[in-house]
Amino acid sequence: MAKKGLRAVDGWKSKIWYKVVTPMMFGKSEIGEIVSDDPSKLLDRIMEMTLGDLTNDFSKQNTVLYFKINEVAGDVASTKFIGHKTTRDYVRSLIKRKTSMIDAMVNVTTKDGYSLRIKGLCFTVKRARASQIRAIRDIMVKMLAVRAPELEFSQCIQEIVLGKMASDLYMATKKVYPIRRIEIIRTEILEEPEFVIESTEEAVPA
Question: Which of 24, 103, 157, 177 is the most buried (most CB within 10 A)?
């Protein structure tokens, strides 16, 4: 029995703690630590963190960011951004009786070759007519389809998670019908360019 216990201790001692950091667009911020006896075992692991925890802004706790470990150097595990979502509880809190919820989803390609799926939701002040719903959805889809290709991947993601893109959609759609709120509730990376050069754009502010 003593020998078995000794092997267990030795096995644990052979493991190393690795610091997991975000990609440059999120400031190379530490998002946690993970232990492993082999750095190759860390590759492709998915890590998640709320934007609120990342920026120390509690108002952003409803935005969940997903990162995948793609490189390990020394005791640092680097990640790439693979998508985000808005929590279900928050979306439910926006749904009100006698109002309309309008969804819009579009696949786009950024200026530097990333293929993304973006999904937005619009919540009206009162129930809108079918023609108004169609008009609002058309504006959302067209604006997303035009704006995203003008931006590099990092710029596009920052505009989404920090709310600028939703704000622009709000300003455009409220001309059709009174809007209570617009949220970009999900992004998903569909395809990356063959050669990826990490952006030097300013990171998401902490």
Answer: 157
